[in-house]
């Protein structure tokens, strides 16, 4: 969301906590007063059915599910149906030491329409300490903040997911020609995927964010 839009957003109840809102709902006997907290996306009614929700709007585009050696193990209904780090759903031959263990989605080959799966203990397939962000999607919260004024002094940290522990940014490098910025972080993060958002903070203050590429 661009800054020109963010600057016009009104949040009339933004200063309340969720428990306070619950109390107000009870006081005014609102129809939602006893509604449980939403899990996942609030506009998807059934928990855990996000793939079914997308299936109603996106045309299936089946392709192969493969291991990194190119061997085909199954079929998917579309690259949109899986994300990095989720269970593959493939029953691998547990009697073979090469395939024994839990297998997760580790990558997507868009050109070949393939979902790539790797064993959970394949460290290099799932952990990253460098994250690239598309500069065309980056927005600063404060018009006075910019890449030239950003000082990586140990107080700058980033998050990819809301439940992830903030990770200190050690340095960043601009690649203007390819419209990318690369962030080097102090601890590896599991399951970083293209399309996720990287949010940048100074202590607890949000500085800006962009889409991971």
TrEMBL record:
One of its GO terms (biological process) is tRNA wobble position uridine thiolation. The keyword Membrane does not apply. The lineage of its organism: Eukaryota, Fungi, Dikarya, Ascomycota, Saccharomycotina. InterPro entries: MnmA-like_C, MnmA-like_central, MnmA-like_central_sf, Rossmann-like_a/b/a_fold. It comes from the Eukaryota. Residues 51-119 form the tRNA-specific 2-thiouridylase MnmA-like central domain. Residues 137-212 form the tRNA-specific 2-thiouridylase MnmA-like C-terminal domain. This is tRNA-5-taurinomethyluridine 2-sulfurtransferase. Pfam families: tRNA_Me_trans, tRNA_Me_trans_C, tRNA_Me_trans_M. Catalyzes the 2-thiolation of uridine at the wobble position (U34) of mitochondrial tRNA(Lys), tRNA(Glu) and tRNA(Gln). Required for the formation of 5-taurinomethyl-2-thiouridine (tm5s2U) of mitochondrial tRNA(Lys), tRNA(Glu), and tRNA(Gln) at the wobble position. ATP is required to activate the C2 atom of the wobble base. GO terms for cellular component: mitochondrion.
């Amino acid at each position: 969301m661009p800054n020109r839009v963010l600057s016009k957003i009104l949040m009339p109840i933004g200063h309340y906590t969720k428990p306070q809102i619950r109390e107000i709902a009870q006081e005014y006997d609102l129809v939602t007063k006893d509604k449980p907290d939403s899990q996942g996306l609030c506009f998807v009614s059934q928990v855990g059915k996000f793939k079914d929700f997308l299936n109603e709007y996106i045309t299936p585009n089946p392709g192969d599910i493969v291991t990194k050696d190119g061997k085909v193990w199954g079929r998917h209904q579309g690259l949109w149906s899986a994300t990095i780090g989720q269970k593959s759903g493939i029953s691998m031959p547990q009697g073979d030491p090469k395939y024994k263990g839990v297998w997760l989605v580790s990558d997507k080959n868009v050109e070949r329409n393939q979902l790539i799966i790797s064993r959970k203990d394949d460290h290099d397939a799932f952990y990253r300490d460098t994250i690239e962000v598309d500069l065309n999607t980056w927005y600063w919260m404060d018009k006075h903040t910019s890449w030239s004024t950003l000082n990586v002094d140990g107080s700058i940290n980033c998050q990819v997911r809301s439940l992830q522990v903030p990770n200190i940014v050690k340095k960043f490098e601009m690649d203007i020609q390819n419209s990318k910025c690369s962030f080097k972080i102090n601890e590896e993060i599991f399951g970083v995927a293209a399309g996720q958002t990287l949010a940048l903070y100074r202590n607890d203050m949000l500085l800006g964010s962009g889409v991971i590429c």
